[in-house]
Automatic annotation (TrEMBL):
UniProt-listed PANTHER family: SULFOQUINOVOSYL TRANSFERASE SQD2
Organism of this sequence: Candidatus Yanofskybacteria bacterium GW2011_GWA2_41_22
Protein name from the UniProt record: Glycosyl transferase group 1
Record's keyword terms, sorted: Transferase
UniProt-recorded Gene Ontology molecular function terms: glycosyltransferase activity
Keyword Ribonucleoprotein annotated: no
Gene3D superfamilies the record matches: Glycogen Phosphorylase B
Domain Glycosyltransferase subfamily 4-like N-terminal: 14-178
Length: 363
């Protein structure tokens, strides 16, 4: 059976890219089709992969300006020639679901969510003053809905996303949750790098620094509480967030997996102030036996067990998050690190591989 993988673009490492890397490990001979690839990314994470790109790759500085070329992407995805393959797995952030394939080729779409700025988050964007942007979004929504009909089998990353696929695409989907790539097991050979790692007694956030991640809410709460907070990750809001943070809050920037393992190991608890479609980082923290405080929305409802593996707060405001920290501290004695670790076994790489292979076999 000839298999191909498709991903929107390969520019920075996020949850979707981690899943693609895992799919590549399962199907190492499958070529990866993508609109463009950052060569630094491929060198660091997909060195042995055969990557086939679209015409966007020829545009200078494409890794920086691609957001302004969205209007080209639907037709470029549709132009990929995948006629030689029996099964195509699209790792779809936005466009990859829109492949045009021959009837004999089965299309499995691993869907992270129906395009959020077109559907459930649409209200946050309709206020723009640019009528051309609004019109483009309208036509992109029409294309996105039509593209969903070309998929033979939808796979959702969570029940939350499964419900969105049903609502916006009117399609059924099975759920196969993403695997955790970092865990206590993966840190066994990481002892030498941790000898000089002495940071302790802090709470941890691992996130890209974007507006919808609610990092400012956590900063406001920790400014008032005075507890140590370490924020791992980077993004366009870094300087803005640094200005409002007090000395008890450290911005660690991007960290490789080896270093990130040490941050997980030594934190008191993990904080997730945003709604996620699934959320890999809190599960990674739990795999080290750490409790999680999460916003009571989205994928966290499927991965955090209140009072056992962590706590929830109900509103993305500093007061609610601070109250969650208080409850987290009060309940600390009731958290069992081994029980928290056991809870994450259902999200293992082995489980993911088993489910993906069973899905392919059914084709």
């Amino acid at each position: 059976m000839k298999i191909a993988l498709v991903h929107d673009w390969l520019n920075t490492l996020g949850g979707a890219e981690r899943v693609l890397i895992e799919l590549h490990k399962i199907f190492p001979e499958a070529p990866i089709y993508t609109l463009f690839v950052n060569k630094k990314f491929s060198k660091n994470f997909l060195l042995d992969a055969e990557i086939r790109v679209s015409a966007l790759q020829k545009i200078p500085l494409i890794a920086k300006i691609y957001k302004y070329l969205f209007f080209l992407m639907p037709s470029l995805v549709e132009s990929f020639d995948l006629s030689e393959f029996d099964v195509v797995i699209s790792s779809s952030v936005i466009f990859s679901k829109g492949l045009v394939l021959k009837p004999k080729t089965k299309h499995i779409c691993y869907c992270y969510s129906p395009t959020r700025f077109l559907w459930d988050n649409h209200a946050e964007y309709i206020g723009t003053d640019n009528p051309l942007v609004n019109l483009a979004r309208h036509f992109l929504r029409i294309w996105d809905r039509g593209a969903s009909d070309r998929v033979d089998e939808f796979v959702a990353i969570s029940k939350t996303v499964q419900d969105r696929i049903k609502k916006y695409y009117h399609r059924d989907a099975i759920v196969i949750t993403p695997p955790i790539m970092l865990s206590e097991e993966s840190s066994i050979n990481n002892q030498s790098s941790s000898k000089n790692f002495t940071i302790n007694n802090y709470y941890l956030i691992v996130s890209r620094l974007y507006r919808h991640k609610n990092i400012n809410v956590a900063i406001d709460a920790f400014n008032k509480l005075g507890y140590n907070l370490v924020i791992v990750g980077t993004g366009p809001l870094k300087k803005e967030l640094e200005k409002i943070a007090k000395k008890n809050i450290k911005f660690a920037g991007f960290k490789n997996d080896e270093t990130l393992i040490n941050y997980y190991k030594r934190c008191r608890a993990f904080i997730m102030p945003q709604e996620e479609d699934f959320g890999l980082t809190p599960i990674e923290a739990m795999s080290f036996g750490k409790p999680v405080l999460a916003l009571r929305r989205g994928g966290a409802l499927e991965t955090v067990i209140e009072g056992i593996t962590g706590e929830f707060f109900d509103d993305p405001i500093p007061e609610a998050l601070a109250d969650g920290i208080r409850r987290l501290n009060n309940n600390r004695a009731s958290y069992n690190a081994e029980i928290i670790k056991q809870h994450t076994l259902k999200f293992s790489r082995e489980k993911f591989k088993e489910q993906i292979l069973a899905l392919i076999a059914n084709c």
